[in-house]
Amino acid sequence: MDINIYQAYLPQNDPEAALEFYRDVLGFEVRNDVGYEGMRWITVGPVGQPDVSIVLHPPAADPGITDEERATIAEMMAKGTYASINLSTPDLDEVFAKLQETAEVVQEPTDQPYGIRDCAFRDPAGNMVRIKQQ
């Protein structure tokens, strides 16, 4: 089989803050920005990887989700336990130095016992963003 990752979804509860983080801080390009009934879905992706995108979506926009589930999602996002993404970079120290000025640091660059070196941040919605050294 030949299967590729096309899109991953991360919730965002502040479209402008999400744009600032993913576009302005991480340097991703905006590929789509769609509004519907007061909500926004923003698609971003790394420059040079046009086939891989992250859709920053309004949490709990699915009409099948109950009010109780929406409240749970909001609580989990506030704690930073709802969603995450793992990224990689050839220069972890450079990326960490830039991100620590603008994002909440969860973990400084660390050599993990399972063989990688990584760091972690939270994006404006509370999502965990882990970045490993390539």
Model description:
The two termini are 26 Å apart. A hairpin with a 5-residue loop joins β7 (117-122) and β8 (128-133). Helices cover 24% and strands 38% of the residues. By secondary structure, the protein is of the alpha/beta class. It contains three helices and eight strands; from the N terminus they run βαβββαβαβββ. It has a four-stranded mixed sheet, covered by helices on one side. It has a four-stranded mixed sheet with strand order 5-8-7-6, covered by helices on one side.
Key words describing this protein structure:
single chain; 4-stranded mixed β-sheet; about 130 residues; alpha/beta; 3 helices
Briefly, what is this?
This protein is of the alpha/beta class and 134 residues long. The protein is built from three helices and eight strands, in the order βαβββαβαβββ. β7 (117-122) and β8 form a beta hairpin.
